[in-house]
Amino acid sequence: PTVTISQTPVGNPNANISGLVQGTSYTFRYTIAAVFGCPSTFDDVVVNNGIGAFVPDAGEDTVYCNATSFVLKGSLPGSGETGTWSVLSGPSGASFLPNANSPNATLANATAGTYILRWTISNAVCSSSDVKKIDNYALPTLANAGADQTVCFGTVTLHGNVPAIGIGTWTQTSGPATTAISAINNPVSQVTGLNSVGLYRFVWTISNGTACSSNSDTVNLMVSALSPTIANAGTDKILCNQSS
To answer: The pTM is what?
Structure first.
């Protein structure tokens, strides 16, 4: 196809070029004509019109637990194209091995957190990209449900540890009666409904994300007796100078 150069008005140093073909290199010459006995001058500019890169694929979003590296799976660049990994956001210190241009590069020196990675395929000045999310969860805090208790009929308070990482959940796993836990995600939570004598077991479980295994600890509550008979000490008395 013929390339058209449009200069408006005539002699305008700024020109519009139309009719370019993808994947073709063009050389354009700008000439200033001779005037008043001075020779003409010119300069050339090279325009590389790259072929538009196809839409790349950075791979599916992934989830890990406390991993220190991730193997990536970007789509292969075509002939004459270059792929490049980059970190849009995430913990600092990570690097690509053997280099950021490898589709199957390893993201090394990773730490817990969320990484947003971009895989860009370019051809000359044309480029397109795809984004991948990696959630790397930290190991949850070890659960501690507190010391076993011997309690009285009715109500008791559970005392689990506060998670530094993750979220905790209380559950009842056994007992002669079904109880009610006032705040299942609160380490310190009240339990009501201890209406029968016997052993009750409650589990404090701490979890973090979907990739890391949760961990649990059990506390035993022994309801030893029902409420005792209401005490009656008799009526108050008024005495005069008695010794007993």
So the answer is: 0.70
